[in-house]
Amino acid sequence: MKNIAVLGSTGSIGVAALDVIKGLGAGYRVVGLSTHSNAGLLLSQARRFRPRWVSVFDEQAALSLRGKLPRGTALLAPGVESLMEMAAHPDTNLVVSGLSGGVGFGPLVAAVKAGKTIALANKEPLVMAGRTLMAECRRWNSSILPVDSEASAVFQSLDRANASRISRVLLTASGGPFLNYKGKLDKVTPAQALRHPRWKMGPKITVDSATLMNKGFEAIEISEFFGLPLDKIQIAIHPQSVLHSAVEYADGAVLAQLSVPDMRLPIQYAITYPERRPSPVAPLGFGDLRLDFAKPDFKRFPCLELALEAARAGGTAPAALSGADEAAVQAFLEGRTGFTGIARVVEAVLARHKGASTPPSLAAAVEAEQWGRETAQGLLASSKFALKAR
Fold first, then answer.
1. CA atoms within 13 A on the CB side of 207
2. Are 10 and 41 within 8 A, CB to CB?
3. Which helix (H) or strand (E) holds 119?
4. How far out from the chain centre does Cα 78 lie?
5. Using CA atoms, how far apart are residues 192 and 188, in angstroms rounded to an integer?
6. Residue 170: pLDDT above 50?
7. Which of 154, 166, 355, 362 is the most buried (most CB within 10 A)?
8. Which of 117, 152, 176, 144 lies closest to 264, judged by CA?
9. What are phi and psi of 101, to 5 degrees?
10. Cα atoms in the Cβ-side hemisphere of radius 13 Å centred on 39
11. Which CA distances in Å does 192 have to 13, 187, 207, 335?
């Protein structure tokens, strides 16, 4: 029996994970669910899956669930501590982390130190302190299985007998909603940025996909997760989102993972690993299959280069990058800065960052992420900083 805690169960990853678990049937039990503030959907999920615990991060939203949960389901106290409690509990043996942003760091660390298997969609922790987290996994006999479609594709394409003979990884990107956009990017609205052409995701990751920051995060994630130098990761725009990523070996052979763009496939693979089970995802049609690839436009999408620069700087720079991006994206979604303001804020934060280039401790990574977020918030509030879209 796999007892599964789904953190972020009301987000796109969590909803997809629960759909997968429902289809798998016997042998897979949901023991924990969590949401930030979507108490209504969480209540519906709790009634369907009858977990042992639920957690609502927002205190007011949590109060609305009192007296409504199924018998046997406990409402944990609001806050990140309850997420950590579910992730590390002895009755949990698989954690699906669909949390967004830095809030997923603490629960991931708690799960790792408890020796759990984690199906990880929340890439920010690996951006913040990937090398240290992977060392902690080895120390505590924990396993992280990637849920991101691209990282999962690399994981599935990895010939472990020849892992030391990897020439490069092809990391693909859809290009987001503005790949062929002819207008000025400084004028686009949050509504436009949230219309992703291929994937249905939460607002933060959707905006990151629009700026290509998400692809920079994934390059860092894959570098840290697989222990690959950054210069072995080649990013390519692939608008069909069918080839999710590929691995090239020393002899020129390329192993790739292809499927229709549906997050349920990498989620199910992580949940059932190492077994493959029939899934609700439609099979790939090869009759009219088309695969296009192009180089990313770093000038038009500067967030990608900023992420790679932070990765090259090392140390706490990626953690600061993550915090700054979270604050800047939130400001964009709230109409406090323009789309191109995201990159300008992140660039200004990284210019102010100082730190050693050695891998940070977990505590140092959390501190740097908070510094990056607070520094960005300060810049966003300052009249001296030009934040309006140009």
1. 24
2. yes
3. strand 117-120
4. 23
5. 6
6. yes
7. 154
8. 152
9. 80, -165
10. 16
11. 22, 10, 10, 13
Other Cβ atoms within 10 Å of 299 Cβ, number: 7
What does the DSSP 8-state code read for residue 336? Answer: S
Question: Quick one: how far is CA 285 from the chain centroid?
Answer: 28
The CA angle 15-17-20, to the nearest 5 degrees, is 115
Both tokens of 106, joined, read: 């603490």
pLDDT band (50, 70, 90) for residue 112: very high
Distance CA 5, CA 97 (A): 8
Tokens of 139: 């120390």
Q: What six digits make up the tokens of 219?
A: 């390059």
118 within 8 A of 111, measured Cβ to Cβ:
yes
Start-to-end CA span in the chain (Å): 55
Q: DSSP secondary-structure letter at 179?
A: T
Residue partners of 187: CB distance under 8 A and separation at least 6:
338, 339, 389
pLDDT for residue 390? 41
- What is the band of 389 on the pLDDT scale with cuts at 50, 70, 90? very low
User: Which domains does the chain show, CATH number per domain?
Assistant: 2-147 (3.40.50.720), 297-390 (1.10.1740.10)
Q: Bridge partners of 75?
A: 54
How many residues does this entry show for the chain? Answer: 390
Q: What is the pLDDT, as a whole number, of residue 266? A: 96
The percentage of residues in the chain with a pLDDT greater than 70, rounded to a whole number, is 98
